[in-house]
Amino acid sequence: MADVNRGNRPLSPHLTIYKPQLTSVTSIFTRITGNALIVAALLTVWWFLAAATSAEYFAVVDGLVTSVLGDIVMTLSLWALWYHALAGLRHLYWDNTGRGLEVDFAEKLGLAVIGGSLVLTILTLLVI
Q: Is the pLDDT of residue 47 over 60?
């Protein structure tokens, strides 16, 4: 039987009225960085394949990878790598110990992941 009161029920909260929390934002960024790392890996494989193909083709791909756009993509990929690794360690801590799930501590861990990934990215760029 059809639900005749379907139109009278309240709608679920929408993104326009939902206030994002740090824990939800860091979770979303973990998923985004995971997918971005796949794209960066494909770009790296393309660079290796171009090197194995011919000098002319490698020059084209290497020109793209070492351009300003390529530098931006590789720097963001480096940040994504550090962010995703630290977020993975955070989840490993949560899953294996069952601790750190309180809202205040989880937010501190989220800030640590964000700050740590930025610091490690800068340190890696300085070393390389």
A: yes
Classify burial at 62, counting beta carbons within 10 Å of its beta carbon; exposed 0-12, middle 13-18, buried 19 or more. Answer: middle
Say how far apart CA 57 and CA 53 lie, in whole Å. 7
Residue 124 identity: T
Question: What letter represents residue 110's amino acid?
Answer: G
Answer whether residue 27 is part of any domain: no
What is the C-alpha separation between 98 and 92, in angstroms, rounded?
A: 10
73 located within any domain: yes
Alpha helices in 5-67 (DSSP H): 22-53, 55-65
Angstrom distance (rounded) from CA 121 to CA 109? 18
Query: DSSP 3-state helix, strand, coil percentages of the chain (rounded to 5)?
Result: 80, 0, 20
pLDDT mean over 101-106: 92
Residue span of the structural domain in which 77 resides: 39-127
Q: What is the pLDDT of residues 3-27, one digit of tens each?
A: 666 666 666 666 677 788 898 899 9
Is 3:91 a contact under the CB 8 Å cutoff? no
CATH number of domain containing 104: 1.20.1300
